[in-house]
Amino acid sequence: MLRAVRAATARLFVVTGMIAGTAGAVLAEEDCVPSSEAGTWVNPSAKVRELSSIELEYFCPEDPVYGAWRMRMKTRCHPRDCSWGWTRAERRSVTTFLGSFQGFYTTSFVKLDVMGGRMSVEVENRSLSTTIDGIKRYMLMRK
């Protein structure tokens, strides 16, 4: 009788552990759902050497509660767009992201403000002499 009670108790712990593990996995997946800002944003009126698109991506490292953002910018080139590569995007508020792209002689600081189906982009270029070479502003739309 005692052996049967112990076996039933052990089975109960195993089943409870399996259910708790499944609930934890579901909770982790829900924590890792990206917000509406994630996706591809395009500038349909981009000219050569102007910003043509931004990809804003949310991904989950091992700890899904602390997901991370990254962005990739592209400029209009010929015959295809030129990528700036991927960089970390830091979320500053509900709709604002900051990032920077390091080049050989210039660093570009990028500020993204998402407003519904539009994204305001501000790109500030600084050369090695730390002077501001100019600020360019673009308005992108969701693809």
Model description:
A hairpin with a 3-residue loop joins strand 5 (96-102) and strand 6 (106-115). The longest helix is centred in the N-terminal third of the chain and has 30 residues, at 2-31. The chain folds into two domains: 1-31; 39-142, Beta Barrel (Lipocalin), CATH 2.40.128. It has one helix spanning 2-31, and strands spanning 39-42, 51-59, 68-75, 82-91, 96-102, 106-115, 118-127, 132-142. Strands 1-2-3-4-5-6-7-8 form an eight-stranded antiparallel barrel. It is globular, with a radius of gyration of 23 Å. It contains one helix and eight strands. Residues 12-29 have low confidence and may be disordered. With 143 residues, the protein is an alpha+beta fold. Helix content is 21%, strand content 48%.
Our Rg estimate from Cα atoms comes to 23 Å
Number of strands: 8
Question: Would you state the CATH class of the largest domain?
Answer: Mainly Beta
CATH fold-level name of the largest domain: Lipocalin
Q: Low-confidence parts, pLDDT < 50 over ≥5 residues?
A: 12-29
Put simply, the count of helices is: 1
| Strand line-up in the sheet with most strands | 1-2-3-4-5-6-7-8
Query: Could you report the average pLDDT, rounded to the nearest whole number?
Result: 80
Distance between the termini: 67 Å
Strand proportion, as a percent range, falls in: over 45%
Tell me the series of helices and strands, N- to C-terminal.
HEEEEEEEE
Task: State the secondary-structure class.
Answer: alpha+beta
Q: Work out the count of structural domains.
A: 2
Query: What summary fits the major beta sheet?
Result: 8 strands, antiparallel, barrel
Q: Which CATH-level-2 architecture of the largest domain?
A: Beta Barrel
- Give the fraction of residues assigned to helices: 10-25%
Shape: globular
